[in-house]
Design goal:
By secondary structure, the protein is α+β, with helices and mostly antiparallel strands. The chain contains six helices and twelve strands. It comes from Pontivivens insulae.
């Protein structure tokens, strides 16, 4: 993977933990508070990632970002039919949550599907329950998913024949550390290990 990743939906350039490291300070309170933890760069500022969304939870309830991001949260976009990338990444995120629990740091892993045509609330619930008992699965209409994906600079596109029921989705694969008080804090590439993520998230938790 390239060391510099362009997030096309936002028109920003970012470098994520697990690829290389850097710090962007713009003089805001959060940038100063979390300077010792920051391992990624978002050109234009960290407030370029995240934003309002309305989705459907795995229990069938309509939720907003305020309902979902009610504490430290690790957000991942993928789909339940993903053959390799998503289950590996989500299992890792679940392991991160387990280890943080042992340290007294509570974080909620969140899975947002990019394939709402197939990922019903029930399908998403079964998938997330396997990954971590506290992982929250979200789906919705295609329009709702598109809005959420754009807010996080997520790339997603269907590949294969239009009539193939077993189509795949091409998509970016980052995990986003979010906080209700501070918004976007950090994102982690696929190369980030469990140990790296636990250490980094603990740093943020101690700085809050």
């Amino acid at each position: 993977m390239s060391r510099t990743i362009a997030i096309a939906a936002l028109g920003v350039v970012a470098v994520g933990l697990g690829v290389t490291a850097g710090v962007l300070l713009t003089g805001g309170d959060d940038e100063i508070r979390f300077a010792q933890c920051r391992e990624s760069v978002v050109v234009g500022g960290a407030d370029q990632l995240g934003g309002p969304f309305t989705l459907v939870s795995e229990t069938g309830e309509t939720v907003t970002e305020a309902d979902v991001l009610d504490g430290p949260t690790l957000v991942y976009f993928g789909y339940t039919s993903c053959p390799d990338v998503c289950p590996i990444d989500l299992f890792r995120n679940g392991e991160v949550a387990h280890l943080l629990d042992e340290q007294g740091v509570a974080i909620t892993p969140v899975f947002i599907t990019i394939d709402p045509a197939r990922d019903t609330p029930q399908q998403v619930a079964e998938y997330t329950d396997f990954m971590h008992p506290r992982m929250l699965g979200l789906t919705g209409s295609q329009e709702q998913i598109d809005i959420a994906a754009r807010a996080y600079g997520v790339y997603a596109a269907r590949v294969g024949e239009p009539d193939d029921p077993d189509y795949l989705m091409d998509h970016s694969s980052y995990s986003y550390l979010m906080s209700p008080e501070h918004g976007f804090l950090e994102f982690y590439s696929r190369q980030a290990s469990v140990e790296q993520m636990v250490e980094n998230i603990t740093c943020y938790a101690n700085a809050m």
